[in-house]
Amino acid sequence: MSDPEQPSDYPSTAPEGFQPPPPPPMPEQPTGPQMSVGETLTGIFFEPGKTFESLRARPRFLIAALLCTIFVVAFFVVFYQRVGFERVMREAVESSSQADQLSAAQKEEQVRIQSLPIVKAITYVSPAIVMAISFALGGALYLLGSAMMGGRMGYKQAIAVWVYSSLPPTALVMLLNIILLFIRSPDDYDIIGASRRGLVQANLSFLVDAKAAPVLATLLGSFDVFTFYGLFLGALGLRLVGKLSSGSAWGIVIAIWLVSVVLRIGFAVLLGSAM
Fold first, then answer.
1. Please, where are the H alpha helices in 149-224?
2. Domain locations along the chain
3. pLDDT tens-place values along the chain, 275 residues long
């Protein structure tokens, strides 16, 4: 047995003076002001900067997304109740691009089909489905744009920015639309146009006749006060949550807006009516 006080015949595995590497740095934990869900829902109207800083650390969006959806669905429910579901369907058939090729009996059959309970239920539910898709897609677009610009943001944070930047303009527009539904008679406005664009005209589409120039009306309608309010909030959220420069954040929201304008114009060309 070897003497434990004698040096070992085997060399040490670590050379003299060797220092172990420092431990890897801990991932950065985002910090921000502590705000409850209720405070973020009201703060996005009055303190959007503080709200987005809070969402960077705690990206919550389900309640805000639900509120946006409720406002939109509420408008359509009130709209169909005030105007009449069958009347809306009849106006849609009469204003379609194929209306001139249909006989009176064929038009009545289309109105009857679209007024069936199952079709009516789908029509009432479809706005909620569209909103859910828009939130998921919008968050993906913000995440992609942030990554391309060198930002640091996760998918939940991206959805939170999209949803919270949509909440104030959506709430304001839908509430104003519902108020106007009780003030104005359906005989005083374009029913199909109202079902697509609402009754609030905070844009330049009033300069042209939407039926005579649907493409131009769609283009002018894109320059909307509430739309730009949402773009401002989106850029602010991307800058604070994604740690982007102001120019990069605005570049992302404007690029997405331009794509949406092109798509709306495309639908206006295909459908022959303003979007």
1. 155-183, 191-197, 214-221
2. 37-187+195-271
3. 445 555 545 455 555 555 566 655 444 555 667 889 999 999 999 999 999 999 999 999 999 999 999 999 999 999 999 999 999 988 888 877 777 777 888 888 888 888 889 989 999 999 999 999 999 999 999 999 999 998 889 999 999 999 999 999 999 999 999 999 999 998 888 888 888 888 998 998 888 888 788 889 899 999 999 999 999 999 999 999 999 999 999 999 999 999 999 999 998 888 777 88
Q: Which tokens sit at 129?
A: 């489905």
Whole-angstrom CA distances from 217 to 84, 176, 190 are 26, 21, 14
Q: State both tokens at 53.
A: 């800083």
Whether 254 and 230 have beta carbons less than 8 Å apart is answered as no
Q: Find where tokens 């996005």 sit.
A: 44
